[in-house]
């Protein structure tokens, strides 16, 4: 049964924005973010809620039943993919809509979600290696190519971890990491360890393709969030181009080694 509705305050709206921000950062589509924020605010008897979300910003303006209005914004700087976190935030949103708890409860729940258990680096290395090897075989590579691809995938993860510490810029990270993949793929074939440079590269490039961003962009456009969808689509295209630039540099400077 729904509890007694709490007055919607700026502190509470800040908590709601925290939920929307974490959803967007973790890979949720624009419509899900806006709908969650709108439903939560409505559950606290907001008279009107206007939410505008793009990939880099969330703006919420609401009006309470007593006529008081306020606006809060949130700037988004980076993204990741954590669908388990999105699921937990969805469940929290549904609970809030049903029971309208105080802001302190929401803050504590968000802390628990943000501090939740994640995969260790060792597990991530294993996942990268398995995925790269499987993709290499899927696209026609040999078992030797799959083994080489798995080893390079571990180097890819090491490169991502290191370059993100030096410079978190996504384009810089993608160019450097795709260059590393291309370089070691060329060297492995040159040394006779691998058979097909194309199959080794494609097995690793699949780990870098912004598939969720591209899928969400098309979904946002279909649902009518054209501006947000186009922003995300452009971002996915730029990321793909940065990956291509890294491979291109490796091919230009080291491709002659295969002759």
Describe the structure.
The chain has 259 residues and is mostly helical. The chain is 66% helix and 9% strand. The chain contains ten helices and three strands; from the N terminus they run ααβββαααααααα. It has a three-stranded antiparallel sheet. A hairpin with a 4-residue loop joins β2 and β3. α3 packs antiparallel against α4, α5 crosses α6 and α7 packs parallel to α10. The radius of gyration is 22 Å and the shape is elongated. The N and C termini lie far apart (73 Å). The N terminus is likely disordered.
Give the number of DSSP strands. 3
Shape: elongated
| Helix/sheet category | mainly alpha
**End-to-end separation:** 73 Å
Q: Order of SSEs, N→C?
A: HHEEEHHHHHHHH
The total of helices stands at: 10
Chain-averaged pLDDT: 88
The main sheet comes to:
3 strands, antiparallel
Q: Nearest-angstrom radius of gyration?
A: 22 Å
């Amino acid at each position: 049964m729904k509890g007694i509705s709490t007055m919607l305050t700026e502190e509470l709206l800040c908590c709601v924005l925290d939920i929307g921000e974490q959803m967007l950062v973790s890979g949720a589509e624009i419509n899900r973010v806006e709908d969650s924020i709108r439903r939560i605010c409505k559950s606290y008897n907001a008279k009107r809620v206007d939410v505008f979300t793009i990939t880099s910003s969330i703006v919420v303006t609401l009006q309470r039943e007593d006529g008081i209005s306020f606006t809060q914004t949130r700037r988004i700087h980076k993204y990741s993919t954590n669908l388990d976190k999105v699921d937990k935030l969805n469940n929290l949103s549904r609970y809030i809509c049903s029971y309208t708890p105080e802001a302190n409860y929401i803050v504590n729940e968000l802390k628990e979600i943000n501090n939740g258990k994640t995969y260790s680096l060792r597990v991530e290395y294993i996942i990268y290696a398995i995925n790269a090897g499987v993709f290499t075989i899927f696209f026609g590579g040999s078992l030797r190519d799959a083994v080489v691809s798995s080893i390079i995938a571990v180097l890819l993860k090491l490169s991502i971890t290191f370059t993100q510490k030096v410079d978190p810029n996504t384009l810089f990270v993608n160019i450097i990491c795709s260059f590393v993949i291309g370089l070691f793929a060329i060297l492995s074939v040159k040394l006779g360890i691998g058979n097909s440079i194309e199959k080794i590269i494609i097995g690793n490039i699949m780990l870098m393709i912004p598939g969720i961003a591209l899928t969400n962009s098309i979904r946002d456009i279909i649902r009518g969030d054209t501006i947000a969808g186009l922003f995300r689509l452009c971002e996915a295209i730029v990321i793909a181009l940065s990956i291509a630039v890294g491979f291109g540099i490796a091919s230009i400077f080291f491709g002659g080694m295969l002759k």
